[in-house]
Each structure stands twice: as C-alpha cells, then as structure tokens.
Amino acid sequence: MLTSYSRREGWSNMNNYETLSYCGIFCGTCANYKKNMNCMGCRNEPSLIDDCPVRACAMNRGFLHCGECGDFPCVVLNDFYNDGNPLHLSAFHHMQDIIENGVDVWLKTQNDSLK
Fold first, then answer.
1. Structure pTM?
2. What is the pLDDT of residues 33-56, one digit of tens each?
3. Residue 43 in contact with residue 56, Cβ under 8 Å?
C-alpha cells in the first residue's frame, strides 16, 4: 500500500500517482504492470530502492518526481535518459511535459490514451 513519505502537504492519496515513476516512465503502458501485475511500479516495489539510484534520490529528497528537483536533469538522469533505451529517452520527454503542464494533467493524458 502506498503511503506518503513526502515532506510536502497535499499528497494524501498517493494511489493517484502509482503509475508515475520518479524518472518519468508511465507504468500504465507496461505489460508487466498493467496485465501481469508482476511489477507494482517503483513506488511499490521495495527491492528497487537498492537497484535504482533515481528512485532512492527522489524518495530521500521527498519528491513526487525528479522534475521537482532544482538539479533536474542531474548526471544520473542524463546517463539514464541517454543510455540508448528508447523507453528511457521517452521518460525524459514525459518529464518535460510534467514540468510544463503539471503531473495531474500529464497523468490524465496518459490514462486517457489507454482508453
């Protein structure tokens, strides 16, 4: 179950953000998350904290996503976004949309595209 670990107020229902990764990947389009439920997303998978420096950093700083950080995009994110994986590059573009339009608008757009 999701709990708020944020230092900011207003995140009383973190379930609204379950499909948002810290880096900008939208979990709602992933077959493992959506269909098989083998993965619960980086907000719910406790073992990922040791495997993902992006997740650990965002959680330690109390951010909902990396776009809230004044260092965005940091060296870790630049390496991730430019590692040749198209999904990671799309996460960068997602994060730009999140910063520009807000996370709730972005999530609504993503969820609407699944219909």
1. 0.78
2. 766 666 777 877 766 656 788 888
3. no
